[in-house]
Amino acid sequence: MDRDHPTYRLGEDFNQKLETFVRRFLKDGFAHFSKEFERIDQFVERAHNDVGRDDSDLRQNPKEKYLLELVAFKIYDKLNRHAFNQCKNTLIVMPDCLSIHDKECEKVEKKYGFFCRRCQQTCQAYQIGDLAAGYGVKIVFSKRKLAQQIEYFAKRMEDLGVIGIACIMMLASGMRTASEVGVPARGVPLNFTGCEHWNDTPFASEFTMTSLRSILEEKYGPRD
Asked: pTM for the complete prediction?
C-alpha cells in the first residue's frame, strides 16, 4: 500500500478541476430539472421576508441545495440497494404531511411515532397501508427524533431495512440518519410539499405509489 495515498490524492490542479465540475453540474442540473425547479427561486425570494418564523432557514434554502440533496438521495439509494434487499424486515417511514390535514384524521400518537388508522381511503397513507399489508410490512409516521425512532424499531424488528418517504430537503438527510444507526435505507421523494413549512394552509403531500411498489417488488417479489 502506498502510504502517501491509499485511496485518493489531490493534485495541485484539484481545486480548479472541482470548480469546473461544480459549475458544469449546476448548469446542467438546472437545465435538466428546469420544469421541476421552476418555482424555487421565487419562493426563496419571498421567504427572505419571513419574520418570526422558526423554519426560515429551511424555507430559504437555495436551488443549489435542492439539486445537491436530490442527487445525494439517488446516490444513497443506489449504494443501499443491495444491503436493503438482504434485510429480512422492512419499515416504511411516512411524513406527517402525507396524511389528509383535517380534524377527521384518526392517526394515533405513541412514543415512537404516529400510527395510521386508515380512516380515509383517499389518503395516500391509507393506500400505503393496503400495499404494505400485502408484504407484511410495518408503516409509521416519522418523528423529529428520527434516529431514536429507527433505533427503537431496529431493536424490535431484527434485520431491518427502512423505506423513507420525504421531501427533497429531508430525504437524503433521513437516509444518512438511518445509516448512522446501522440501518440501510431506500427512499421515495414526495412529488410536492403540502406541509406548513411551505404553505399558509397545509394540505396533503403526494408521492408516486409505483416507486414504492417497485422497491417492495424488487425485495420480495410481486404481490397480487
From this structure: 0.92
